């Protein structure tokens, strides 16, 4: 083929380091940061960045599913995000509706199951409806779990879990000595997942900030932390592979026996 004018990018060298025969993390968690900055760089309103961010969710979810990832947890909205301007919050609350209309048919084709952790009952009714519909329409899928952390905060999750444990103890259903890491993990929001995929092997944060920001505090006790300067709308399959390659490299050096 005549390729003189082809704009096809050369494969970046890190693809060589990524090895599909090595361990693919079962659970990947991502803090999707940088939509606002992406928009600002283009003199666009912040919401244009969020729109582009949804497209990235679709692409990255497909890529992860193709690689055999079991759970992909995406931090979409934290309990602190309510402090943003009303117009931005209102726009964000419509995203799951948009996502449901445009992406759920694809998810069904790809056998992906939607799941949500967070305080869903505090969301506007139309948002709750879209979230519950996405969960319901994909509930029989047996492939990757696409898990949105939505109106989620990790300290609140740990407090809710503690209240659940205390209630069980008060009712005599649980002995004090039986409060273990395992029984505690059971009552966290991630307790709905199989035990071997509850905790992410790797946490990725885009956009250059190196903070956890109240995300999965209990679950990341042993996770690799991977920070990239790429903004979320620029993140793609290649970025995901780069993160996995970094995990594989660290795992080879420090992990195992
Ligand atoms: C905006 C970048 C998908 C981060 C990604 C307000 C911020 C796009 C969902 C979604 C958001 C959530 C639940 C669900 C289906 C889809 C989403 C929010 C923000 C919360 F069942 N993208 N997305 N939710 N953004």
**Overall strand count:** 6
The hetero molecules present are:
ligand V0D
Q: What is the annotated CATH architecture of the domain at 24-153 and 194-222 and 235-248?
A: 3-Layer(aba) Sandwich
Instruction: Report the structural category.
Output: alpha/beta
Major beta sheet, strand line-up = 3-4-2-1-5-6
Say what oligomer this is.
single chain
Radius of gyration: 19 Å
Helicity range: 40-55%
CATH topology of the domain at 24-153 and 194-222 and 235-248: Undecaprenyl pyrophosphate synthetase
Beta content comes to: 5-15%
Which outline best applies?
globular
What does this protein look like?
- Helix 4 (86-109) packs parallel to helix 5.
- The longest helix has 24 residues, at 86-109.
- The chain has helices at residues 14-17, 35-41, 46-67, 86-109, 125-137, 154-170, 181-187, 237-254; strands at residues 27-31, 71-78, 113-117, 145-152, 202-205, 224-227.
- With 257 residues, the chain is an alpha/beta fold.
- The protein is 44% helix and 13% strand.
- Residues 32, 35, 50, 53-54, 57, 76-77, 92, 95-96, 99, 114, 116, 131, 134, 148, 150, 232 line the site of ligand V0D.
In short:
The chain has helices spanning 14-17, 35-41, 46-67, 86-109, 125-137, 154-170, 181-187, 237-254; strands spanning 27-31, 71-78, 113-117, 145-152, 202-205, 224-227. By secondary structure, the protein is an alpha/beta fold.
């Amino acid at each position: 083929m005549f390729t003189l004018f082809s704009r096809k990018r050369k494969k970046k060298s890190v693809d060589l380091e990524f090895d599909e025969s090595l361990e693919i993390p079962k659970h990947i968690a991502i803090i999707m940061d940088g939509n606002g900055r992406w928009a600002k760089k283009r003199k666009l309103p912040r919401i244009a960045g969020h729109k582009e961010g949804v497209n990235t969710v679709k692409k990255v979810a497909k890529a992860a599913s193709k690689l055999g990832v079991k759970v992909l947890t995406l931090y979409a909205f934290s309990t602190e995000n309510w402090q943003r301007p009303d117009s931005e919050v209102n726009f964000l609350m419509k995203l799951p509706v948009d996502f449901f209309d445009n992406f759920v048919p694809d998810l069904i084709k790809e056998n992906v199951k939607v799941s949500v952790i967070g305080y869903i009952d505090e969301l506007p009714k139309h948002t709750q409806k879209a979230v519950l519909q996405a969960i319901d329409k994909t509930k029989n899928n047996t492939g990757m779990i696409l898990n949105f952390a939505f109106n989620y905060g990790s300290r609140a999750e740990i407090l809710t879990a503690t209240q659940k444990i205390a209630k069980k103890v008060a009712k005599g259903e649980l002995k004090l000595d039986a409060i273990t890491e395992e029984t505690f993990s059971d009552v966290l929001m991630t307790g709905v997942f199989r035990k071997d995929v509850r905790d992410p092997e790797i946490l990725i944060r885009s956009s250059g900030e190196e903070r956890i920001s109240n995300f999965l505090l209990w679950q990341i006790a042993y996770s690799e932390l991977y920070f990239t300067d790429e903004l979320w709308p620029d993140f793609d399959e290649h970025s995901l592979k780069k993160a996995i390659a970094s995990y594989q490299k660290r795992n080879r050096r420090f992990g195992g026996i």
